[in-house]
Design goal:
Transcriptional regulator, MarR family; DNA-binding transcription factor activity; two-stranded antiparallel sheet; HTH_MarR-typ; mainly alpha; MarR/SlyA-like; 61% helix; Arc Repressor Mutant, subunit A; 2 domains; WH_DNA-bd_sf
Length: 197
């Protein structure tokens, strides 16, 4: 089984006090107000913060971290027809995307190949080394997920992931082309229901 190692891995999985023997355990009730406990944005933000802190250590061998891992995954399953399309899908600036692909290509994870359908475009294709790096990173991310979701029973974890996926599918269905962001649409819905003053 893969192990999460490297600088900051212990802190990422166990918090900033993990290496400090005199650091008292956090009193969640003292930190979280009733309003915060009901605030979806705050709750999702805390989960995201914990996940990103641990996941960044888990994928530190992939150029670009999680963003690079998503691009690598797309390149391995044939969903990376060209840099522009992948950049749009993952919300990556085009110039950042070029630099990221350069780094991934230098690391031997991907190759740029001419697109047979459009000679001006370059496909991003994952290599065998890229597949091995991707699989190893996914193994480490599963450990991160196990840690983050530790308070949930196995069936609750599946339900949590399924419900989160449905919310994401809803948001993507609102705006699959990014012409209007899901946040703008949600803001408009809230404005419709705002009390008149």
């Amino acid at each position: 089984m893969a192990q999460l190692t490297g600088a900051g891995a212990d802190e990422a999985l166990n918090g900033p006090c993990a290496a400090e023997p005199d650091c008292p355990p956090a009193n969640v009730d003292a930190l979280v107000t009733d309003d915060m406990a009901r605030d979806l944005g705050w709750l999702v933000g805390q989960i995201q913060h914990g996940y990103l802190a641990a996941a960044s250590a888990a994928v530190d061998s992939v150029p670009g971290g999680l963003r690079g891992l998503y691009v690598l995954g797309a390149s391995l399953c044939g969903r990376a027809p060209n840099q522009i399309e992948v950049a749009r899908r993952f919300g990556i600036d085009r110039t950042v995307m070029v630099h990221l692909i350069d780094q991934m290509e230098d690391a031997g994870l991907v190759e740029r190949r001419p697109d047979p359908a459009d000679r001006r475009a370059r496909m991003i294709v994952g290599t065998d080394h890229g597949r091995a790096a991707y699989d190893a990173a996914q193994d480490r991310l599963r450990l991160v997920e196990d840690h983050i979701l530790a308070p949930l029973a196995e069936d609750e974890r599946g339900s949590f992931a399924s419900m989160a996926r449905r919310v994401v599918e809803h948001l993507v269905s609102i705006d699959p082309t990014q012409a209007e962001s899901a946040c703008q649409r949600a803001s408009g819905e809230l404005d419709k229901h705002a009390p008149l003053t």
